[in-house]
Amino acid sequence: LIKDLPDEEWPVGEIFYRVANRRNDEPTIAYSESHDQAIVGDQAIIFRLIGTEMYSSMSVFEQSWRVDRGLRLSKLIRLITLAVGGDGYLNFMGNEFGHPDWVDFPRRDNHWSHRYARRQWHLADDTNLRYRFVAEFDRAMLELAGEHDLLEQSPATLLREHGEHKLLTFIRGDLLFWINLHPGRTATEPFEVPPGRYRLVFDTEATRFGGESHRSTDWLSPISTQRGDQLYWELPVELPARSAVVFLRFSG
Prior knowledge:
This protein is of the alpha+beta class. It is built from 6 helices and 11 strands. It has helices at 12-20, 45-50, 53-56, 65-84, 122-125, 131-147, and strands at 29-30, 88-89, 157-162, 167-172, 175-180, 191-192, 197-203, 219-220, 223-227, 230-235, 243-250. A hairpin with a 2-residue loop joins strand 4 and strand 5. Helix 4 (65-84) runs parallel beside helix 6 (131-147). The chain is globular.
């Protein structure tokens, strides 16, 4: 999809089902990219999304449409993979902060060069660069999964997908995921959820991840809506384009 289709044409329902498609009785390791995408001759996901601006436009003091798009989508891709994909999660060193270069060990074809036989860990520590936001997101995402034993839960259950608006809602364990993959549309309509109480525990656009969100983490109670003979529960949450939120659900 990243190579062949603009993200406004991504089929969100198919993305969910492809990631979720596995034998539930066999432990599965999920990953959005492995070492194959980080060695010479290929590109990591974030580099495919951002391109050469990884070298020139990752400063916190400048704005780049391509960088903003790439950072947002790379977060959503990893979050969906972790939450839906399986019983374990794999990362290749450096991808957790968006390393801009491939890995290439000294060999005859590169004249025994050591130039790319390294990872530039200092990029994730530089407060003037956006790589630190990528690293902090990855760290927080894994902490969320660990705190709620996410990978030990039953497979994710899709609650809703809206192909035109690029919206996904699914639940796994006690966590509810609300994802907006649309490139420009903010989701303002309430979305249907199981009854219970909800508290925001993760926001891909939080300021610590380089975003501008300042959402409250107070408990929310869904609004009940009567449609014919059916009673529905909906959460009124505004969700910007290319972003996601995760709620902790308390059913009592």
